[in-house]
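4.2 Preliminary Data

To establish feasibility before requesting continued support, the project team ran the inverse folding procedure on a target of 795 residues. The structure was first converted into the token representation described in Section 3, and no sequence information of any kind was made available to the design step. The complete token record follows.
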């Protein structure tokens, strides 16, 4: 049965004029509202009906009511000892610092005195420890297993500095996801990665573990790692919790010396060093690692300014903070704690929730709480943060790894991905004409070349191809350049002479020199250098062989920019291969023979001399710039009192963003959507409507492939802001895109400059834009010359 409809009839004496009047009023009201809407309070238009300001939650899982209810329920059952156990972490494998003297982990776990283990690899071993925690510990709380999965777990990809040279965040996300799947298969649900420390000094060995010197690129890459590791749901078996490290500013130790003090203005900290950590947090990173270094006089592991004010209050981080290896005990060496108890109290109160390998939380916290020196509430909060991550990962519901999975094999699919990634990370630094009497360019090497000599200590070293931190990867999986070239030569019926030094070079038509650093000894943690030239007698070998006048290619396998000034002047071709991972040989061979066209660009500046370090492209201006001075000779008179060296030019050997291809690209038709923009329009973007003005500037340019082969260009956009209240860098990257073009093809690309790209910190530490002028350049490196400008005005 249908409901009877009620019909209301309104009597209108003269209908038509009334209807027309009503329509007219409605139309005018709508028009008026559209016009005045920018002047009305924005919340009138916002979706929120609560009247409360919305608090940004970077990881909704950690903030979820369901998880937090479970946390509270468990917390209410925990004794003081149970709680402290959750804040304690030990390495049950390899050590990268002093041990604690304890290895009786089975007993400690059974008593509920361990919250996390690291360096336990393999489902079986992890499950063995997990069974003790789940079956025997008082509250059956599962362990969280951590591991340094830095650029792959078993499938080892290029080192992070190399990965960043791809300028390809989505590729890096894929690398991180592959690593997450393999780590999870190995029983690991927490990776101590990404390292997002900005590094501007090639002497620092850990420059190899990060994304280089640039904040904008580093922030994009930081987010990509998090999305790759964590996915959209931490509880999925193929996702792992990421650990953003090392908070904060670990990449800026004085003189590039490992673990050294860091001293910088708050402006530089916020402008240059913090954004990548923040980007990772905003992408939902579940955990953070506090750094070893002091920052402006306070050790980072006991620094309430960074750990509480910035991380918790400004960024609303809900996850857990773990100390670096033994860093809580190191507070004593830093001279800010005279006893272990004081070190533990300072670290916990500042915001370090879990103690990695100091054994001070486990042994000192109970005393501190009982004596009243540490509020119980501070301890409880740290426990909540640990449990939240464990619940979010689904460890309480699925504590065990699947032991039935077949053992790892570097399958053709995994190798194909590793090879593609490696090819995107290799930078072609130089490719000049062959020495007379040869013709053409040195690279790519002709496939029919009769005799190739391969010389150098890195030509056939599997271990070096794996980089300095290769997790559970096996060096035996790595294919060296020698193996890859030999395969190609056998197939092409040409001859490869390997490592016979000068004799081989003399007999060859092309010489490939594989030189560089020893990955495990010279790069990574605790591998700072005072010299950046080729180590040992490699420079002599290089010079002797280059002087034979043969077509010679220098292939560098290393973890940092080296000072290769002689090579840049004399060797006809230079390929920066970094440490490319398990598919090193095939990837480098593809580049050498032109089966892959190099596209990567430097993310760390190459110096001419070590004395230029720290060297980076986005320097702040000086009052006496030496831009128009000839710096190739010592000063002779009026050219002295400038910001310059007297024994070397200021310019780098190879700048940030630089890298060649086997084709060439031309940029043209650089255009801006407008040459002026109102400050208010950028600062307070209005809802788009008919009369609204744009809140950003669109930059368009055309790129043409002017060379003979298909290639991928990494187009870069730089800005300079002049006229603000604080100094801004002489150039700053604010956009990048990978563009693939066939020979002769042209594409238009578009960048957007809005609040995120144009804003900076003022002296009140607020992110602002001021009425000022911006210069804009687009091109294939930080030396891009095609430029224009626009103004931000108040009216
Ligand atoms: C490193 C960290 C690493 C930790 C655990 C420390 O020495 O600084 O990056 O995650 O060891 O292995």
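Position-by-position output of the design step:
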């Amino acid at each position: 049965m249908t409901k009877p409809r009620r019909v209301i009839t309104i009597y209108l004496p003269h209908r038509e004029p009334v209807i027309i009047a009503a329509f007219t009023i409605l139309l005018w009201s709508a028009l008026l509202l559209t016009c005045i809407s920018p002047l009305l309070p924005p919340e009138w238009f916002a979706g929120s009906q609560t009247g409360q300001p919305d608090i940004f939650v970077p990881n909704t899982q950690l903030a979820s009511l369901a998880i937090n209810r479970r946390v509270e329920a468990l917390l209410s059952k925990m004794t003081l000892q149970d709680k402290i156990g959750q804040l304690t972490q030990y390495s049950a494998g390899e050590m990268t610092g002093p041990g604690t003297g304890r290895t009786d982990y089975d007993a400690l776990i059974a008593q509920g005195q361990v919250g996390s283990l690291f360096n336990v690899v393999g489902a079986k071993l992890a499950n063995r420890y997990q069974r003790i925690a789940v079956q025997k510990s008082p509250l059956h709380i599962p362990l969280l297993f951590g591991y340094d999965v830095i650029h792959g777990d078993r499938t080892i990809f290029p080192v992070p500095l190399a990965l960043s040279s791809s300028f390809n965040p989505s590729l890096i996300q894929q690398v991180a996801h592959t690593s997450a799947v393999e780590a999870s298969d190995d029983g690991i649900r927490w990776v101590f990665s990404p390292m997002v420390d900005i590094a501007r000094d090639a002497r620092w060995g850990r420059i190899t573990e990060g994304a280089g010197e640039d904040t904008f690129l580093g922030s994009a890459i930081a987010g990509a790692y998090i999305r790759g590791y964590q996915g959209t749901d931490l509880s999925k078996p193929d996702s792992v919790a990421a650990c953003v490290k090392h908070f904060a500013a670990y990449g800026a130790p004085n003189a590039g010396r490992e673990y050294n003090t860091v001293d910088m203005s708050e402006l530089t900290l916020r402008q240059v060093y913090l954004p990548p950590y923040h980007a990772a947090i905003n992408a939902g990173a579940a955990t953070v690692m506090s750094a070893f270094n002091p920052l402006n006089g306070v050790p980072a592991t006991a620094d309430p300014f960074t750990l509480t004010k910035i991380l918790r209050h400004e960024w609303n981080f809900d996850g857990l903070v773990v100390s670096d290896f033994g860093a809580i005990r190191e507070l004593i060496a830093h001279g800010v704690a005279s006893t272990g108890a004081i070190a533990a109290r300072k670290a916990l109160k500042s915001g370090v929730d879990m103690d990695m390998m100091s054994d001070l939380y486990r042994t000192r916290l109970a005393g501190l709480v009982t004596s009243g020196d540490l509020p119980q509430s501070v301890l409880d909060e740290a426990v909540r943060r640990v449990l939240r991550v464990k619940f979010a990962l689904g460890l309480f519901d699925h504590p065990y790894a699947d032991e039935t999975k077949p053992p790892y094999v570097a399958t053709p699919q995994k190798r194909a991905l590793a090879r593609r990634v490696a090819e995107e990370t290799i930078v072609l630094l130089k490719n000049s004409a062959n020495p007379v009497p040869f013709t053409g360019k040195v690279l790519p090497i002709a496939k029919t070349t009769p005799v190739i000599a391969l010389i150098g200590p890195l030509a056939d070293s599997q271990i070096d191809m794996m980089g300095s931190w290769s997790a559970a990867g096996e060096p035996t999986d790595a294919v060296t350049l020698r193996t890859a070239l030999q395969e190609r030569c056998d197939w092409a019926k040409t001859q490869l002479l390997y490592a016979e030094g000068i004799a081989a070079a003399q007999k060859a038509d092309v010489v490939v020199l594989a030189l560089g650093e020893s990955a495990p000894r010279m790069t990574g943690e605790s591998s700072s250098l005072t010299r950046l030239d080729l180590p040992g007698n490699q420079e002599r070998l290089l010079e002797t062989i280059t002087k034979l006048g043969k077509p010679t290619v220098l292939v560098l396998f290393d973890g940092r920019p080296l000072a290769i000034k002689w090579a840049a002047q004399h060797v006809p071709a230079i390929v920066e291969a970094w440490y490319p991972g398990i598919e090193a040989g095939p990837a480098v061979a593809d580049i050498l023979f032109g089966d892959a066209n190099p596209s990567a660009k430097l993310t760390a500046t190459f110096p001419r001399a070590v004395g230029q370090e720290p060297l980076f492209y986005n320097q702040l201006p000086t009052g006496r710039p030496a831009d128009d001075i000839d710096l190739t000779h010592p000063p002779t008179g009026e050219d002295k009192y400038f910001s310059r060296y007297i024994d070397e030019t200021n310019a780098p050997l190879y700048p940030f963003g630089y890298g060649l291809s086997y084709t060439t690209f031309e940029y043209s038709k650089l255009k801006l959507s407008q040459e002026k923009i109102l400050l208010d329009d950028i600062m307070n973007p209005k809802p788009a409507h008919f009369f609204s003005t744009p809140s950003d500037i669109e930059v368009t340019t055309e790129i043409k492939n002017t060379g003979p082969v298909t290639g991928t260009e990494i187009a870069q956009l730089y800005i300079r802001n002049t006229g603000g209240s604080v100094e801004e860098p002489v150039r700053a990257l604010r956009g990048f895109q990978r563009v693939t073009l066939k020979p002769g093809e042209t594409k238009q690309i578009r960048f957007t400059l809005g609040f995120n790209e144009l804003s900076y910190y003022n002296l009140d530490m607020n992110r602002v834009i001021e009425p000022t002028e911006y210069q804009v350049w687009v091109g294939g490196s930080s030396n891009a010359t095609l430029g224009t400008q626009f103004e931000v005005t108040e009216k």
